[in-house]
Design brief:
4 domains, alpha/beta, TTF-type domain-containing protein, five-stranded mixed sheet, 7% strand, Nucleotidyltransferase, domain 5, 9 strands
Length: 686
């Protein structure tokens, strides 16, 4: 009868559960709780997870120096090679730990566990900690090895499996891995969620990314979705000189404060043994309400690493930014809400009546078509109001008819058409794959000047356009000298005129917000960075080459170029430019990425190491990347309404595999099988 009844059990996800959520185990050894504090049934699983990850060893970290015995000393990264299977380093505490002793020593020993180690002048303490063959440390190491060797466990010793049984199990497991690989590539749902297999794939993919970075410098870009999930992309130059952008996961953040986001970034970097000190650029994207938090985050990172410059991502559609900023004004936000409803109501009818003329496209093109099809749209709304399929459609058409024939609709339509039109050329130029950085920055300055000119002198011209449109379409024109009536509170006096409301509160305010946004996104520092970068552009036989600007660029990165190296760079640049201008292989290069590839191919990265180092720094800046936006587009494909209960860690693993298909294809079944077997106690050990 037992099979008809479910036994009461305690799930680790239950609020009353004594179990911990071990998917979020801290990577930094200083932030871990004692192994004894975990539930007895979870301890071995926690140990396996830490052993699979390996010791926390941030190889690229700039280890903190401190005064010891009258000399400045620091942790020596070479110790990782000598004691690599157990030695860990905490970035937050700047101290060393022992992973094996943390996991298995229960004799009250606190050295390298609780008390940590930071006597950098006494490296012999490390070998003393290891001790002889039967030392407590070596016993802890042996226990770690025994735990990961499932073949010698009591369970497997009692229940021996024949070779035939193991072969059958291997066949079934390989089939599951093949099915999982296919589902991951296609972004399809799992009937039975093989989370451990997906996690094994994801870990192998990220391992490949870290190997590609190869202890070099890189940029990190982030985006936040509406569920407090931060997607992270690394941008770097690989050993072949190719620029790579790799998605490394979605991080769940409990809140979207800058401190919480910084903590999530720290955990992710510690997880992969990376150091924030190696970041050479930051790029962020997300909802407009995240702007303040992202500003705070980039300031926190820059405070810790003054080479992590923020550069606006050019590939992000500027029109989206312009509209998001303008929506801070209530009436403009209301206008776009009405336009969205209008497109939903009118769209289907228009497509049937005028095919090919209603592909709305961008915000700018949408407003252009609204102006061009205004009379037609009114006729369609009048038709729907009478002949609509249901009462809901007829009511919507009635409300829209009232709104589109008001002065407010006409005014905001032409105001936003004006602002978006000014920004259109820049928006297109910034998204151009083969963009000329100097021309792009020149367009930025021209756009800012034009916005300021319109703000100062463009009111009368706009009102002439609005007045002409109102007259043409029989829309009542307001008297600007009359008192303004707020439609939300029509009985309450506003004590301002229509002129003040529409010119000061709307026109001037909208343009001031745009100018402020431009100044925030294109600061004096990042504008200078980008201008200096353009001096390496290979187009036209390096016609924009400027030695002084490139030396100035190197000085932005004191951690990468010492004072003496800046002097050497200036000398090396003269030889470099003469060398490449007389080499036919460099004649037809178009972009900086091509230059890096050609330097590696021709071995000139060895002949001109400082120039190549500078070029790699230039290429890591997120000037033209849409990877983060693509990642969240991928999330919408993977996490649909039918799969909205997908956990954060499974979602992250799934997206890593789905987005980085190229690396997924390189992961062998055997690699997945080994990791899958090691992550937990299995009924069959291969």
């Amino acid at each position: 009868m037992e099979r008809y009844y479910k036994k009461a059990s305690v799930s680790p996800s239950d609020n009353t559960s004594p179990y911990d959520n071990i998917d979020d185990l801290p990577w930094d050894p200083a932030k871990r709780k004692s192994i004894k504090d975990y539930h007895a049934n979870q301890v071995d699983e926690v140990r396996r997870k830490y052993l699979l990850r390996g010791p926390c060893q941030p190889l690229g970290h700039n280890f903190e120096k401190k005064l010891i015995s009258g000399k400045m000393r620091r942790f020596n990264p070479a110790w990782f090679e000598l004691y690599g299977n157990w030695l860990e380093y905490s970035v937050s505490e700047e101290k060393a730990y022992c992973l094996c002793c943390y996991l298995f020593r229960d004799d009250g020993y606190s050295g390298f566990v609780k008390d940590r180690f930071s006597s950098w002048n006494k490296p012999d303490r490390l070998s003393f900690h290891v001790g002889d063959f039967n030392s407590s440390h070596n016993n802890a190491v042996k226990k770690c090895d025994d735990l990961m060797n499932q073949g010698q466990s009591i369970v497997h010793a009692l229940y021996k499996k024949t070779t035939a049984m193991k072969n059958e199990y291997r066949i079934r497991l390989n089939a599951s891995i093949d099915v999982s690989r296919y589902l991951l590539r296609q972004g399809l749902a799992f009937r039975e969620i093989q989370k451990d297999i997906v996690n094994a794939f994801a870990e192998e993919v990220v391992k490949s990314v870290i190997e590609e970075i190869d202890n070099g410098v890189f940029d990190e870009s982030a985006d936040v979705s509406d569920k407090e999930q931060m997607g992270v992309v690394f941008r770097f130059v690989d050993k072949n000189g190719a620029v790579k952008e790799r998605f490394v996961g979605v991080v769940h953040v409990k809140e979207t404060s800058s401190l919480s986001l910084k903590h999530a970034i720290d955990e992710l970097f510690a997880k992969y043994g990376l150091s924030l000190k190696k970041v050479r650029g930051q790029g962020y994207d997300g909802a407009s309400n995240m702007k303040g938090e992202f500003n705070g985050l980039r300031s926190l990172i820059f405070r810790e690493n003054n080479s992590a410059y923020y550069v606006h991502c050019f590939a992000h559609q500027l029109q989206l930014v312009v509209v998001a900023v303008a929506k801070k004004i209530f009436d403009i936000a209301d206008f776009f809400d009405m336009v969205s409803t209008l497109l939903n109501v009118v769209g289907a009818s228009c497509k049937r009546m005028w095919p090919g003329t209603t592909r709305w496209g961008s915000h700018y093109k949408t407003l252009l078509r609204l102006v061009g099809l205004f009379s037609t749209i009114i006729k369609v709304l009048e038709y729907i109001e009478v002949e609509g399929a249901d009462d809901s459609k007829r009511r919507q058409a009635y409300g829209l008819l009232k709104y589109v024939q008001t002065f407010d609709c006409v005014f905001y339509m032409h105001l936003m058409l004006l602002i978006l039109g000014i920004c259109e050329n820049l928006s297109m130029a910034l998204q151009n794959k083969d963009q000329d950085i100097l021309n792009a920055m020149s367009l930025v300055e021209s756009t800012k000047r034009e916005l300021q000119r319109v703000r100062d002198d463009g009111w009368d011209s706009l009102m002439l356009t609005v007045s002409s449109f109102c007259k043409k379409h029989d829309t009542e024109m307001l008297n600007m000298d009359e008192g303004f009536i707020d439609s939300r509170k029509p009985r309450k006096k506003t004590n301002i005129t229509n002129m003040h409301h529409y010119k000061v509160n709307c026109f001037n305010a909208a343009l001031d917000l745009q100018l402020q946004e431009f100044n925030d996104r294109f600061t004096e520092v990042n504008t200078e960075l980008l201008t200096c970068m353009a001096s390496l552009n290979p187009v036209g036989a390096f016609r924009g080459f400027d030695k002084s600007k490139l030396v100035k660029l190197a000085k932005f990165y004191p951690d990468d170029f010492s004072f003496m190296e800046c002097i050497s760079l200036e000398q090396q640049l003269g030889i470099f430019i003469d060398n490449v201008r007389h080499d036919q292989r460099f004649k037809d290069l178009k972009i900086l990425g091509d230059l890096a590839l050609m330097m590696v191919e021709t071995q000139k990265h060895i002949a001109h190491p400082l120039v190549y180092r500078l070029l790699k720094l230039v290429l890591t800046l997120p000037v033209a990347t849409a990877s983060v936006e693509r990642c969240f587009s991928a999330m919408k494909l993977v996490k649909t309404a039918l799969r909205n209960r997908m956990g954060d860690h499974f979602l992250s693993d799934y997206l890593i595999c789905f987005i980085e298909k190229e690396l997924l294809d390189d992961v062998t079944n055997e690699e997945v099988l080994i990791r899958f077997q090691a992550v937990s106690e299995r009924r069959m050990h291969l």
